[in-house]
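Reopening this ticket.

The earlier resolution said the output was attached, but the attachment link was broken on my side. Pasting everything inline this time so it's all in one place.
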Amino acid sequence: MARFFLSFSFLVLAASSFAIQVSGNQSGTWTPDNNPYEIVGDVTVPSGQWLTVLPGVIVHAMGLYQIIAQGNIYAVGTEQDSIYFVSGQPDPSALWDGIRLESMTVQNQFSYCRIDNGDYGINSVNSPASITHCHLKNNKRGIQAYGIGSANPATVLIDHNLIELSIQNGILVAQNSNTTITNNELTRNGTSASYYGAIQLSNQSAGGSCNPGIAYNHIHHNFKQGIIAWDIVAAGAINPEVHNNLVENNLSGIYFRHSSGYLHHNTVINNFIPGDMNSGAGFMVSGSTAQPYFEDNIVTGNYTGFYLTENAQPCLGNLSIYHAWAQGGNTIANNIDANNITHSVYCYSYTNSALTVFAENNFWDYNTATEIAGTIEDHNDNATLPTIDFDPWQNNANPIYLAGTVTLANPPVPTATLELVSAQTGNVLNNWTVTINEPFQVPVYHDSLVYIVAHATDLVEQQYYGAYGGTEVPIAAQIIADVQFSIGDLPISFPPPNWYYRKFGAPQLINGHQSFPLKTGWFVYAPDQTFFLYRDGDFLRLSRIEAWLDGTFYAFDVDSTPIWMKIANLDSDESWQQYIGALVQPPYPITTAATHAVAGITTYKYGESSTYDLIQVGVNRDYQLYDYHDNLWVLCHMYYMHNGVTGKWRITPAAVEPDGTLFPLAQNNYWKSLPDYDMYDVPDYFGYKTADSLAFYWIPPFGDQLNHTYRIYDNSVLLTEVQTSVQKAVVAIPADGLEHTYALSVYYDDTDHFSPSSLVLTFTASQDEVQPVKPLSVYPNPFNPLFSSLNVKLGNPAISETKVAVYNIKGQKVWSHLLEKGATELTWDGRDSRGRLCASGIYQLRLSDSEGRHATRKLVLIR
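Inline output:
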């Protein structure tokens, strides 16, 4: 899913310091030369007139005012130069009224805009609008498409936006069937106590209609439901098409109350709040007029796959009615609650026990009627409930079985936890308990790119970790083609892997400071916290903290902008207090700087030393700043004691660049910690990546002489040599897009003495995820290859070379093709890779790009 963290030109900060105050009627053009525009009263764009807002404009709402477009607004920024509509009030949480669109004729356009703290970010009141590539944050409601009372509401396009931290809904559609919601990311919405979906559809009248298209969105980590469709008057007026969305890690996935429609090709996984048994439905369907169709969805990892209540009668597959939407094909498996009970379908509170809910032709946890029925709560368990008709079912080619052995000599505990961790998001997709040193075989119900991790904890809290490919450079695996995927032995060991800092994201304007988000995390897992930093002379200061702790999200702006780190002109005995953010877990949500100050301040000072020891008071850590030939290092040695064994890690190395900056603030800069080890024989080093180069720094082994030569190898080929006195080398990032492994050696006695650590450079398009190519249409389907080929048109051009493959129902690949970048369509003649006609049956078309993102579509071949 595409993410747009909108950048902001530094030229804006140098603009006029005299604000332009605006209110009343406005039209014409707003330019960045007049920044900031301060709204001191309601602003109205008169009917028939235009307000054009140029890239780089900053608009501050100074109170509870709104921008009302009776005419039209054209606010189109660029990816490099966004437009800001934000609150300028002293209270950072104070709302303004937002942007209200009332023109019913000409389309309003918003692109690359940042809209914060509005009662509505954008409220289209039966007004045509195009809202694309925008970032909406901390609004009460992000976007509303309102069409109540209109037989033909205005067309509203909501595409490629990031919508987060809305108090209520990220997107609210009120009786507007001409709304299209595609390619958006919605996360952390629904911060209030009330239950509001990240996307919510509403109908309030018998004659209403609310049938939007919702497709290709990433809806994740919202505090309430991912999608809610609620027909308040139960008029059967909500019938959307919801397809190809990824809905994960919400309180529950998709909730349809008195609502119907067609839901297909969605992936609904891992929706629950840990330990909360009232959460966790993948799909929840409620009410006697709720009769949606479900086809080809993947529903796994939730507490409950389908939760049905109040006489709902959805169709999960009914082969007897020959309906285009009733073919089943859903994967409903591995939905296990906190009590380790499997619930594929759970029925509750029915008054009509004579109802039958058809759920035919699906994949389940098992392949026998008795075992499948054991995962279903229906009439066979409680006479007041309806009957779930799941026969016939598809023999489960899924799951694919992952096999191997977690190994550890003389294990202190008998079992380990095996995890699949998404290589794209860092979220744990599945986990199992396995016995150490005994073969395991576990089912896998999805095919995303994953890291395979195992870990165990002994009785004194000592942790052992391992990963497929090793913990230094784990291998991201895609478990798709084989009936069984074997990883062989997966050894775990102590100590566990290192902490690391991830790369900087695009800057954001926070309380007047251009702040760079630094996401920090551990090993292959999702980042747990983000520090927003800006440069202030010798210091980096902190403007905002965001963090996840035990499933709860904490976020607040730090008004006092305390010191995060001193980075220049270091003196002994000087000290400061640093906010360490979520590294210290308070017993309450972080809501204000004052409450967090109690839990999150640590005192630092520089001691008397030629290397300026940096002491973290009250915590057993010793930071040391090493100065070798004007190259400044930061090493952190954390000492631990278990069973008399002492060890240490190097945590956060960083270097001073030519401009004197430690921890250089620039988008996509990143560094990674490396293990500490004996430095007597080989050099200790790390690599640092900037936008266009790699910088290598090292500390020479003790006793090193100036006549020694240092060598850097690229994929085992000598790249460059330098002398000891330099201790730094900068090389250009290769343009071939291939993976490169760099190694450093000190060369003496005609021998390379290699550092045990290496730097692996892998290429991605950017930190922001890019929407993968998607199949828009597959036709004819079913198809007979004796009469025609299968034609596939793509919803967007391929962003890179894309692998296309067709798999049979056993998961075996029968045909593959490499799709060139920019391609928009392809055909398959129904033959396998050897040119033989494939047998009749169900097949799966799979598109996978170079980043491991994929899309699928079911095919039916008839001969």
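Reporter confirms the inline version is readable. The CA atoms of residues 491 and 818 lie 36 Å apart. The chain has a mean pLDDT of 77.
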